[in-house]
Design brief:
- It contains 10 helices and no strands.
- By secondary structure, the chain is mainly alpha-helical.
- It has a single domain, classed as Tetracycline Repressor, domain 2 (Orthogonal Bundle), CATH 1.10.357.10.
- The longest helix is centred in the C-terminal third of the chain and has 28 residues.
- The chain is elongated and about 65 Å long.
């Protein structure tokens, strides 16, 4: 005899199903009917836990946000240097995308950009928090002379986030034919090397 789920367990099950289906079907084809079929409950049962489909999407965003921020906090708690932490933050982000491949699809979906202002605001806030975290580490690296100080830390952070976003899109379009985290580490190393070389060049100029 199947065990009865608590309300919290059922909500979590619905969110997990929504993420799986967003990957398999695409966010714009996701309906409460297909979620109900995936979970194995009736459609009215879905609405007992979430009043609207938009509410399900907001719960999905909260789930992604909680996992991302936990990964960032874990990196920031490590006794690493700022450049190393930047690499670890980017790797953590790419690992989460590999584990949750629906994320790129959600970011480019009509659901996020047109139909659900709350979902768009949640993801915009999440991107902003990631940007602030990266920019903070860039400032530390600049202060320690490990990265060029000639470029605004916010701009460097935007470039590094653009690497993550562009790589995630290429990974998705290629049907995940390469390791996202490994490719990200390779390309990030190129960018960080160039930024470090600029810093070294600037230091040499100051000494002349």
């Amino acid at each position: 005899m199947a065990l009865r789920r608590t309300a919290e367990e059922r909500r979590s099950e619905i969110v997990s199903a929504a993420l799986r289906l967003a990957d398999a079907l695409g966010p714009d084809r996701l309906t409460t009917e297909v979620i109900a079929a995936e979970v194995g409950v009736s459609q009215p049962a879905i609405f007992r836990h979430f009043r609207t489909k938009q509410a399900i999407w907001l719960a999905v965003a909260d789930n992604v946000a909680d996992r991302m921020t936990a990964a960032w906090d874990d990196v920031l708690d490590r006794p690493s240097g700022p450049v190393e932490r930047i690499g670890e933050l980017v790797s953590a982000q790419l690992r989460l995308i590999e584990a949750t491949p629906a994320i790129p699809a959600i970011l480019f979906s009509r659901e996020l950009h047109v139909e659900n202002e709350g979902l768009r605001a949640r993801f915009l806030e999440l991107v902003g928090r990631f940007h602030q975290t990266i920019a903070g580490e860039v400032r530390r690296a600049q202060g320690e002379g490990e990265m060029t100080g000639d470029i605004d830390p916010n701009d460097i952070a935007f470039l590094l986030i653009g690497l993550v976003q562009g790589l995630a899109l290429r990974w998705s379009l290629s049907r995940r034919r390469f390791g996202l985290e490994a490719e990200g580490a390779r390309l990030l190393a190129v960018q960080l090397t160039l930024l470090g070389q600029s810093a070294a060049a600037g230091t040499g100029k100051d000494r002349s």
